[in-house]
Amino acid sequence: MKSRLFYIMVLLTGLSMNEGKNKLCSNYTQVLSDVPSVVDVDGARCWMEGVNEQFKTENLSTIIKSVEKLERVLENTALNETTSIIVEKLVAHIFRAKGNFTGLNISASQETVTSDSDHVANTTVKVHLPKELLKTNENNNIVFCMITSPEKYGPMGILDGRVVGLAVSKKTVLGLHDKINFSMPLQRPTLESQADKQPSCQFFNFSTNEFHQDGCTTEWKRHEGRVVCSCDHLTYFAVLMVSPSISESDQEILSYITLIGCSLSLFFLVITIVLYATQRGAGTDISLKVHINLSVALILLNLHFLPSQQVAALSSSGPCIYVAVLLHYSLLATFTWTAIEGFHLYLLLVRVFNIYVRRYLLKLSLVGWGFPAVIVIVIAVIDKDTYSRVTLHPSKTNGRAVVMCYLSNDVIKLVTTVGLFGLVFVFNLGMLAVTMRRLKSLRTGQMSGEKGRARRDTCTVLGITCLLGITWGIIFFSFGQLTTPGLYLFCVLNSLQGFFIFLWFFVFKWKTKDSQPGSDTHCTNT
Prior knowledge:
This protein has helices at about 1-30, 40-55, 60-75, 150-155, 250-280, 285-305, 310, 320-350, 360-380, 410-445, 450-465, 485-495, 495-510, and strands at about 85, 90-95, 105-110, 115, 125-130, 140-150, 160-170, 180-185, 200-205, 210, 215-220, 225-230, 235-240, 385-390, 400-405. The chain is of the alpha+beta class. A hairpin with a 4-residue loop joins strand 9 and strand 10 (about 210). Residues about 1-25, about 395-400 and about 515-525 have low confidence and may be disordered.
């Protein structure tokens, strides 16, 4: 009788404990709007159960708000050791950092999650967190949360309806130099509606309720059947299946166009230099010498651009650093000399009179070759590791990556290339407009030979357009539906820029054969 009463007491006690727990979880479900400053593991589990129930009953906007709060709850969870919590659609892993943090690997599926030193085979999501995430002796909790809901997230184009959240308690992590990596399986799009789409790693912005690509790159390793994402910050991430801006066949064609065009340009630019050297005594025009300097800059650019991918594949980093430095320098020199072409044109067409400058060519050369050198030296001093192997993606949404030697710092790349060329492009575009206006004014009232003059004026405008580097500006207008045609036009015109300069040089020399050059070295035939 006593033993029966004992079992009855145990049974009743167990029931009361379960009722207490269910009541606790029910309370957490009802007060999801209030994020506690500290919560124990049972409380975190109850929060996860509440959010899990919302995936079954609530709309997506309500779920998003709860997921954002759940992240803070997991960060505020008090624990003494690493803990995992699995509640149907949600998988959480809270890693308790102790001592010196050397990085972390997390492997997770719907049934299990672990943070062993190496990735576990046959798991859905694999995450690598770099050593940079925590400073020495920091003991913040590292939170991993995986949510899988094809019903709610699938219509948003999210791969397998799965999002991955990463966070560090009491810390905002942005701008990581050594990026976090996480991967998900994707052999090929399984749905017919996704057959023509590509994976894109993106993060969710809770302020705008939208996905963005900033700070994330995508690599689709088809032979391994996985998508690898690299991001420089922590938040919730997902792999979206999106329509690629350019197809793989277009990428391959553009690669061949670039290779052939740059090779032809290099060949004809060398011929241009040889022709100039053999007939140097006859050419005293300063404009011709400016063209030659631009040609040398383009030769350097093509010489270091063409083998960049092959050098990046070498095991030694020394050759890659050399190519990266010279490639950046020659690109800046090309932009600078196109700006000098515009400045020289300004003297000829706008100022016209009193344009003599003592040691004019020497001063131009100091700017054209010295200014890029100063930029490269300053960058090397500030961040000596910025010149290295980099992974470039022809499209932000495409998994095919290209490894070459160039700048690894996106901010420096943006300022020194896009920023500099933007200024040059605006100035030279204005000079092209001035040129066309002057040509029109010169032809006003001239009736004889109108067709011939119109043809020559057209050739003049096209030649000056090439010398001023206006064709590089096509990249600014390659967006939306213009992306693929714009890239084709950009690759064709700019890879063949050296060939066009050769034609301009040839026509220039042909026209001036019978001309008598002036005695002043700054005299220019126009």
